[in-house]
Amino acid sequence: MARNQFASKFGTMAAIAGSAVGLGNIWKFPYVAGQNGGAAFLIIYIVISLLISVPVMLSEFVIGRRGQGNTYRSFINSSGKKAWGTVGAIEIFAGMVILAFYCVVAGWSLEYIIQSIGHGFGGMTYEQMSVTFDDFVNGNRPVLWTLIFLAMNCVILAFGVSKGIERCSKFMIPALFCILLLLAIVSCWQDGWKEGAAFLLKPNWKAVTGQTIIMALGQSFFSLSLGMSAMTTYGSYIQKDQSLVSVSMIVTGATVLMAVLAGLAIFPSVFTYGVEVTSGPNLVFKTLPPLFATLPGGRIVSVLFFILLFFAAITSSFSLLEAGAAYISEEWKVAGKPVTRVWALVILFFTVGALSVICAMSQVSGSTLTILGWSVFDFTDMFTSNFILPLGGIAACVLVGWLMERNVVFNELTSDGQFSAKVSGFFFWLARYVCPIIILFMFINGVRSIERPKAAPAEEIAPVVAPVQSTSVLDVAADEMEVVFDPNRMIEVQGENAAE
Ligand code: PHE
């Protein structure tokens, strides 16, 4: 039975880069990099990505392409043991949970596209933006947008892997790149351009500690969509004549490039107006919009920025939803008949949608939808980031490095001898020895750093810069801690050329 496949090389890259480049890259990475040594962090990040994340990604690709099935089936097929299916199933489940809270945040970007088209945010203060955002999050519209976003995903995926995911990614990823480039260029008009660029790019080796390395690894893992069934599923769609090693290197490079561009688009404005540097939803929904309004073509810049956020989010969510859709359509049977792809998507729309609604509602202030003191939203983010991702990564490395036959793995890595065995050998060695140990270390560290004050009332929080160490990779969970504005530095942003 012929399985789905990506049709072209560029389409494969676009889809995989689409999964990788997401909200984490845009609102978290530049901030973390700036706070932790600028170019020094970037160098560490790239080295860590090459030494740890790329081998993990390759392992997931090998499992997927060799296994030729959804993540659950691929783990079984590649290992020859049914028990390994459990790892795949857990990853798929975690992916659906991530998708649920991802949809909530992506829904916010849809609201803000409309708002910036409607009136722009010129002349608004941070306080006004906060009130607007909090009112919005406390209302019903987030639920609606979340479901609209999920429905868009389902409709696009219903067209299939190459006609749906690949075709959209081929358009959205280059568009995303162009918008980022444009925003970075327009940002050069801001007086704080040099300061902004220096924050991100000036190396400060003093800021680098052991913790920095762990943080770089966690960020790189989430950013490259590892340990979450996304890359294993996409791996099963990569054609045999494509080099897995090149795909993973190019995607990693593109992801870093986009994250740096995002920083160059964002920080010049932040420094021009002397507002505190921050990350996460605070950055994109409260701080940035009025600052962007001061740029030439203010309102268009705002609209483009939220479109960018939307493209980044939807191409990432494709990979998660696809993992679920492939699983249901390939594994489930109703009355002896396989569930079709469309029905699988309908099932996912209702189940993931229900979870999304719970996540969205748990964000409402005073909500009782909590788990162990966290809001459901924050809990899912924290749990998947700290537990499932690293364990999924270790499992992939152990399976490929130790349990699968060496020549089978090499046949995949070199596409039956078409590509360099030396480079493949190097990555194989890393996956076998280095990755499991380092990731285990990251896992232990992540679990140990979990207990932190939860959802303290805003008045009790000292005005500090956003925490450098966060239990959430996406940075949503850390949001409540980020009451970051020093009133003395707070200035009203009066955008002269703000679009009215
Ligand atoms: N890589 C995406 C980001 O940076 C998130 C993601 C994680 C997507 C896991 C799919 C799977 O935002």
Structure, described:
A hairpin with a 2-residue loop joins β1 (333-334) and β2 (337-338). α3 (39-67) crosses α17 (406-413). This protein has a single domain (9-453, 461-481), classed as Up-down Bundle (Amino acid/polyamine transporter I). By secondary structure, it is an all-alpha fold. It is globular and about 60 Å long. The relative contact order is 0.19. The protein is built from 18 helices and 4 strands. The structure holds phenylalanine (PHE). Phenylalanine binds next to α1, α2, α10 and α14.
Fold topology:
Elements (H helix, E strand, L loop, with lengths): L8 H12 L2 H13 L3 H29 L3 H9 L5 H34 L7 H13 L2 H18 L2 H26 L6 H9 L8 H14 L6 H6 L8 H29 L7 H13 L5 H34 L1 E2 L2 E2 L2 H22 L7 E2 L2 E2 H28 L2 H8 L7 H28 L52
Antiparallel strand pairs: 1-2, 3-4
Helix pairs in contact: 1-8, 1-12, 1-14, 2-12, 3-4, 3-10, 3-12, 3-16, 3-17, 3-18, 4-5, 5-7, 5-14, 5-15, 5-16, 6-13, 7-8, 7-14, 7-15, 8-12, 8-14, 9-12, 10-18, 14-15, 16-18
The structure holds phenylalanine.
The site of phenylalanine has 15 residues, from helix 1, helix 2, helix 10 and helix 14.
